[in-house]
Amino acid sequence: MKHIKKAQTPTLIIHGEQDHDVHITQAEEFYTALKMRDVETTFVRYPREGHGISEPAHRFDQMARTMLWFERYLKAK
Q1: What's the pLDDT tens digit per position in 3-25?
Q2: Could you point out which of 4, 27, 42, 44 has its C-alpha 20 to 30 Å from the C-alpha of 66?
Q3: Among candidates 50, 46, 43, which has minimal Cα distance to 19?
Q4: What is the pLDDT of residues 29-54, one digit of tens each?
Q5: Contact at 8 Å (CB) between 59 and 77?
Q6: Virtual CA dihedral for 19, 67, 71, 69, nearest 10 degrees?
Q7: What's the distance, CA 72 to chain centroid?
Q8: pTM as predicted
Q9: Beta strands in the chain (DSSP E)
Q10: Per-domain boundaries in the chain
Q11: How far apart are CA 25 and CA 48, in angstroms?
Q12: Distance, CA of 55 to CA of 11 (rounded, Å)
């Protein structure tokens, strides 16, 4: 958050609601700060997940979202 004023990179935030290493409120704060700076950002929260996504449906969703994000922002022009 110290350098949020410099943020410009489109950001995909993926977070488990039960993460005990990085509390969900930190992800929410980061997301809100990026949105306030008009940085393209998406915040995905997975119920029942901790610091790492383990449920098969969530893992599939995470992978699909990540691939689409890369396709959108890293595609060669």
Answers
A1: 999 999 999 999 999 999 999 99
A2: 4
A3: 50
A4: 999 999 999 999 999 999 999 999 99
A5: no
A6: -20
A7: 15
A8: 0.90
A9: 11-16, 41-46
A10: 4-74
A11: 15
A12: 23
Residue with tokens 């409120």: 25
DSSP secondary structure string for all residues of 21-39: SS-HHHHHHHHHHHHHTT-
Distance (Å, whole) CA 73 – CA 77:
10
Cα–Cα distance for residue pair 4/32, rounded to 1 Å: 11
Task: Give the span between the Cα atoms of 52 and 16, in whole angstroms.
Answer: 7
Q: With beta carbons less than 8 A apart as the criterion, state whether 62 and 14 touch.
A: yes
Q: Are 15 and 45 in contact (CB under 8 A)?
A: yes
Find out whether 35 and 7 touch, Cβ atoms under 8 Å: no
Distance separating alpha carbons of residues 10 and 22, to the nearest angstrom: 21
Asked whether the beta carbons of 33 and 24 are under 8 A apart, the reply is no
Whose tokens are 């940085």? That residue is 39
Mapped onto helix, strand or coil, the DSSP state of residue 52 is strand
